[in-house]
Structure of Peroxiredoxin bcp:
Amino acid sequence: MATESPAGELGLAAPAFSLPATDGRTCTLDDVRGAKGLVVIFMCNHCPYVQAALPRIVHEARELAALGIGTVGINSNDAAAYPEDSFKRMVALAVERQFPFPYLHDEAQQVAQAYGAACTPEFFGFDANLLLQYRGRLDASRKVPVPGARRELFEAMQQIAQTGVGPDMQYPALGCSIKWRSS
């Protein structure tokens, strides 16, 4: 079922984390931040919205790195219920798609809860001080890329890198809901 992200509470500090990465490291918030900001992407392997966006996500992460903005992907889905989102499959996807950013496993789902993540893919853009300036979508595409779609995330992060402030107009992310473990 498609889920839309709520509006972001701009100015909130990025919650800290320490999570295993697909490359064998453990990454913290400070490890992944860039000098000018950070994009935190809640994503997974199985979601068709993520699959459709992956080429653009990889491209934008490379472009953002050139602006001094770090990127990190976090998978918080329940891998017991969704085996394609297992850590082993995350490792394979990161290698296959040559992710230019760490892909982290939030097995306990505490990081997704701390951020208030609702769907995949969902993008949180932070300034150099790790204060939230953007929460929303990559662009207007959904399960199928929209030709010529405005690069909303890139433009927002470029503005944040230059001014420290995100755009006034921000559109919610739309994708698969986070697959929470049943209690």
The two ends are 20 Å apart (CA to CA). The longest strand covers residues 69-75. Strands lie at 2-4, 18-20, 26-28, 37-42, 69-75, 103-105, 119-120, 122-126, 132-136, 174-177.
